[in-house]
Amino acid sequence: MSRRVHSSDLQRQGYVAVAMVMASILTAFDVRTASIGLADLRGAFGLSFDEGAWLSTFATAPQILVAPSIGWLIGVFGVKRVMIGPSILYSVISVAMPFAHGFVPLVALHALRAMVLGIFVGATLLVAFRNLDRKYWIFALSFYVLRIPFAQNLGLYAAGSYTQTIGWQWLYWQGAVVAPVIGILFWYGGKQMKVDRELLDRADWGGMALFGVALTTLYFALDQGNRLDWFRSGYVVSLLTATAFLFCVFLWHETRVKEPWAHISILRHRNIALGFAAIACFMIASLGSSLLEPNFLLSVARLRPEQIGDFTAPYAVLLLVAATGTAVALVRTVKQRWTLIIGFTCFAISAWLGTQLTSVWSLPEFRMIVILQTFGEEIVFLAAVATLFSNVNPARAISLVAYVQVMRLICSETVATSMTTWVRQREQLHSYLIGLHVTGTTPGWSSTIIKLGSGSAQATPRAEVLKRGVGVLATIVQREANVQAYIDGFWITFMAAIVGLIVASLMKPSPPHPLTTR
């Protein structure tokens, strides 16, 4: 009888584990493919550039409105009540979205869908810790981390392939296929729980509302900041001011309420604060593969997303399995601090390789960078999150999960938009500096212009040749300015990796925890 019960419980845990992995990967994959396929969506829906930018913001920002509080909701209502309904809703919305007409209905559907995605990824960690045996926690966490390189590598390939083969509608319909399976798995695997009336009566509704609204407002400011030129836009300044005010009210509220939901004091623990600092360094260092490499290949090498994915897709599964296995083994053997040092070393080497960038680089030259980045992402993030949970008081785990969600969305958006702005401004600077040395007084100017503009034509008027030559030269200057800008971006990621090494060296040894012991 006991064997039968054990077998049944093991099967239930398996359902939960698979559902959790699918939910976290679906969220990251969906956001990535929608971002890469935004140009195709603008064309399909007939949207302007500004409307497309707003659509992208509304498709992500509402995640942070609900994600921090999902852990608490699962603690009160249980995984079945929280997860099954949104799975069905997500599937229905995803099926309907390609048939939406008009900008406002489209934005509303994207916002609602983003809230459901926030429920999926916000629930992952608490679902694992509440429904799985302790010995499986490290594997659940490793698959949670897996979503990052998985979405970066395969999401790029999928987004380009959909529009070229089966249709742009599958940017939405891919989720409609997966979400019902997630709901079914949670139905069979989730524990039957009674509503925790005591925890519900002590709910800090004001804190959850203030925190979610403040972070959502900040996300809107960050996502639109690069397009609207940051502090030169009254809209962005207003949003940042509102964010500061709401966050101050939140901090004041958490000191006044009897049982605060996510009090900032949780960050006073040395290893927890350093763990979040390590995640921030990770977010910057990982931009080499998530932003700099694909953007360079798109803007300088002129490749399409599915061409970029042609390198990563065939090897991604083996690479991810190897990186995940390595990360788990390191956390279990050399523990978190040395694991972080190894991971940030991978980031530093890959970033240094990126600083050797030239205009002739294409997919093969990025191969080692992608491999090192993938290992670095798995190793660092797994070790950092393991550090957080092995140092927190279990009674405050829900508060910790709320701040993990902040790092996942707000920190990642901050570093991505900052890097985009940095690359744009550095391109302008390098274009100006290169232009100072390319003038009519430069030796060999006339012969170079004629050579660039003549091409294969034999009897072209001289004026036309000169005009064409100047155009070709301007393109070359812009290309080289872009190369220098991306090199500057890789130097930023290199410095982030070095800071990450310093942060890891300042950590104390973490206490024994199920995540780090066999």
Automatic annotation (TrEMBL):
It is a multi-pass membrane protein. InterPro entries: MFS, MFS_trans_sf. Its main location: membrane. The keyword DNA repair does not apply. The chain crosses the membrane at residues 12-32, 52-75, 87-104, 110-129, 136-159, 171-190, 202-222, 234-252, 272-292, 312-331, 338-354, 366-389, 489-507. The keyword Transport applies. One of its GO terms (molecular function) is transmembrane transporter activity. It is found in: Membrane. One of its GO terms (cellular component) is membrane. Keywords: Membrane, Transmembrane, Transmembrane helix, Transport. This is MFS transporter.
